[in-house]
Design brief:
alpha+beta; two-stranded antiparallel ribbon; 473 residues; single chain; 14% strand; 2 domains; binds heme C; 13 helices; two-stranded parallel ribbon; 18 strands
C-alpha cells in the first residue's frame, strides 16, 4: 500500500516536471528574453520584432541598430549608415561624390530622414522644392509602359550646378468636408498634379502614366526580407468574401527568375533596392546599374565610371537589415488594449496582419553574407505584405507587374505611431494625402471599405480609442 503510494507520487512528480518542461518550451518559442533599459523583462506584447526589438521612442527610434549588432557588425552598420546619410556632391568618384547630373534626392536620408519618411515638399513647397531638395518620387512612363526619350523612370526634378532638372512637379489640393454619422466633421484633400519646366520635350499630362509617392518608413525591413515567404503565400490563398477582402501576391521578374515582391508601395521589389536607389534616385552609378540615369540627355556627356563600389552597396544593405524595430508603448494601458479590440472589430487585422514569422536561418545580403539573427523570430509588422484593391479614389494608372493602378501593398504599421516624433509630421498613404490617422482610414475604399464603414459607425470615443492603439505601434 505504502509502496504504491510512493510510486504514485513519483509518477505524479515526474508528470509535473514534464508538463513544466513542455510549458517552458512553448514559452521559449514565443518569447525572447529582452530586458528593457529599466532592467525588467520586456512583455511579449512590447516585442515588435523579437530579438531585433529596441527600446527607444525618440527621434532616433527608427535609426537605432538592433542589440545583436556589436563588434565588427557595428563597424559595418556605421559605414552603411554614413553612406546612407551623407549628402552626395557632383564630380569625383569618392564616397561622397557622383551625384547627378540630374537626381531626385542628394542622399538616401534626404528622403528617408532618420530612416523614416521625410516631410515632403509636396506639403511644404507645393511640389518640387526649388533648392536641390524634394523628398518624393514621381514615376513617369508612356502609355505603352516605356520610358520617355530624354527622361528617366522617375522625374529627376533636381540637377547639379550646370545641368537642368528634367522637370518640376506642382501639386494642388481640393478639400472636401464630410461628417461621421454622429455629426463629427472631417475633411479629405485630393491631389492634382502638373509637370512644368521640362528639360526637353514637354509632355501633356494625359499622355503620361504618373504615380507620385512619398517615402516609406524603414522600420523592420530586415525582418521583411527574412519573412517565411510560405506564410505570405498562404495568406494570399485566404479569401474573406463576406468582407470583400482578398490579398494578392506581386511577382517580380528579375535576372530570369520570379521573386515574391515585398518592398515598395506596390510590393514591386524583391530586395531593399540599394543599387537601384543609388542609380535612379541619386544618379550614382554602380556595378548593377552602370549607366547614368539620364544617359539619353545631351547634357550628360562622357563616361562617368562606377561611382559607388559593390562593398559600399553591401554596407548600406546591411545597415537597413540591421535597424532595430521600436518596442510598442503603453501596452498595459486599458485604453490602448480596448483600441486593439476595436482594430479587430473593424477588420483592420485582415490586411494589417498583426503576427508573422521569419524563416529559420535568417537572410542573405546582396553580397551573399548571411544575417542569421533575423531568423526564427515572431514579429508584429501589422501587414500581410500583399496587394489589395483600395478603390479608384486612391488609385493611379501606374501598374507594376501584377499590381494594377488601384492595388497597393498593405503598409506595415509598426513604427507608425512614432512617425510624428521621428519625422515631425503625420502624413500617411502612398502620396501622403492623409494628414492624420482618421483621414488615412477614411481613404480606405475598395477592399478596405468594410473597415472604413465600421470605423465611421463607431462612437467618437471608440474612434479615438482605436487611434490610441495605432499610436502605440
Ligand atoms: C527622392 C526621394 C528618395 C530617395 C533619395 C531615396 N528614396 Fe527610398 N523611397 C522613396 C519613395 C518615394 C519610396 C516608395 C517608392 C515606391 O513605392 O516605389 C521609397 C522606398 C524605399 C524602400 C522600400 C521600403 C519598404 O518599406 O518597402 C527602400 C528599401 C528604399 N526606399 C531605400 C532607399 C535607399 C537605400 C536609398 C538611397 C540609395 C533611397 N531609398 C533613396 C524615396 C526616396
Ligand atoms: C483591405 C485591406 C485593408 C484593410 C481592411 C485595412 N487596411 Fe489600412 N491599408 C491598406 C493598404 C493597401 C494601405 C496602403 C494604401 C495607400 O498607401 O494608398 C493601407 C494604409 C493604411 C494606413 C497608412 C499607413 C502609412 O504609413 O501610410 C493606416 C494608418 C491604415 N492603413 C490603418 C488601417 C486601419 C486602422 C484599418 C481598420 C480600421 C485598416 N487600415 C484596414 C489595406 C487595408
Amino acid at each position: 500500500m505504502f509502496k504504491y503510494h510512493k510510486i504514485g507520487l513519483l509518477v505524479f512528480v515526474i508528470f509535473l516536471f514534464l508538463v513544466s518542461l513542455i510549458f517552458q518550451a512553448c514559452q521559449k518559442e514565443e518569447e525572447n528574453v529582452i530586458l528593457t533599459p529599466g532592467g525588467r523583462v520586456a512583455l511579449p506584447s512590447e516585442l515588435s520584432a523579437g530579438n531585433s526589438t529596441i527600446f527607444s521612442s525618440t527621434s532616433k527610434a527608427f535609426d537605432t541598430p538592433a542589440n545583436w549588432v556589436t563588434g565588427s557588425l557595428m563597424d559595418l552598420f556605421l559605414k552603411g549608415d554614413a553612406l546612407y546619410d551623407n549628402p552626395r556632391v557632383s564630380g569625383e568618384n569618392t564616397t561622397s561624390g557622383g551625384l547627378g547630373p540630374v537626381y531626385a534626392g542628394y542622399s538616401c536620408a534626404s528622403c528617408h530622414n532618420d530612416a523614416g519618411r521625410t516631410r515632403s515638399t509636396l506639403f511644404t513647397a507645393g511640389g518640387s522644392g526649388p533648392y536641390g531638395f524634394s523628398s518624393f518620387l514621381t514615376f513617369i512612363r508612356t502609355p505603352n509602359d516605356q520610358n520617355f526619350r530624354q527622361y528617366g523612370r522617375v522625374l529627376h526634378d533636381q540637377a547639379v550646378y550646370g545641368s537642368k532638372p528634367e522637370g518640376k512637379l506642382r501639386v494642388t489640393y481640393t478639400e472636401k468636408e464630410y461628417s461621421f454619422p454622429d455629426g463629427e466633421k472631417y475633411s479629405l484633400i485630393t491631389p492634382h498634379y502638373e509637370i512644368y519646366d521640362w528639360y526637353a520635350d514637354s509632355i501633356p499630362l494625359d499622355q503620361i502614366e504618373l504615380s507620385v509617392r512619398v517615402p516609406l518608413r524603414h522600420v523592420g525591413m530586415g525582418l521583411m526580407m527574412a519573412l517565411d515567404q510560405n506564410e505570405i503565400l498562404r495568406l494570399a490563398t485566404i479569401q474573406y468574401p463576406e468582407y470583400g477582402i482578398s490579398g494578392k501576391v506581386n511577382w517580380v521578374p528579375e535576372r530570369n527568375k520570379k521573386y515574391l515582391g515585398l518592398s515598395g508601395h506596390k510590393a514591386q521589389h524583391a530586395d531593399l533596392t540599394v543599387e537601384l536607389g543609388f542609380s535612379s534616385d541619386l544618379g550614382v552609378t554602380n556595378d548593377r546599374f552602370p549607366h547614368e540615369v539620364a544617359e539619353g540627355q545631351s547634357q550628360v556627356n562622357g563616361n562617368y565610371g562606377i561611382q559607388a563600389t559593390t562593398k559600399e552597396m553591401a554596407a548600406v544593405d546591411f545597415y537597413m537589415h540591421a535597424l532595430g524595430v521600436p518596442a510598442r508603448r503603453a501596452v498595459t494601458n486599458p485604453v490602448v488594449q480596448k483600441g486593439e479590440e476595436l482594430f479587430y472589430q473593424a477588420k483592420c487585422n485582415l490586411c494589417h496582419t498583426p503576427t508573422l514569422h521569419t524563416k529559420a536561418g535568417g537572410v542573405q545580403l546582396i553580397d551573399g553574407t548571411n544575417v542569421p539573427w533575423l531568423g526564427s523570430q515572431v514579429i508584429h509588422p501589422y501587414s500581410d505584405y500583399l496587394l489589395h484593391d483600395m478603390g479608384p479614389e486612391l488609385g493611379d494608372d501606374y501598374s507594376q507587374f501584377n499590381a494594377t493602378g488601384d492595388e497597393w501593398r498593405t503598409t506595415p504599421l509598426w513604427g507608425a505611431g512614432l512617425q510624428e516624433i521621428v519625422n515631425g509630421h503625420s502624413n500617411f498613404l502612398h502620396d501622403g494625402r492623409a494628414r492624420n490617422f482618421v483621414e488615412a482610414i477614411m481613404w480606405h475604399g475598395g477592399e478596405g471599405d468594410v473597415s472604413r464603414q465600421k470605423f465611421s459607425k463607431m462612437t467618437k470615443e471608440e474612434r479615438e480609442t482605436l487611434i490610441m492603439f495605432l499610436r502605440s505601434l
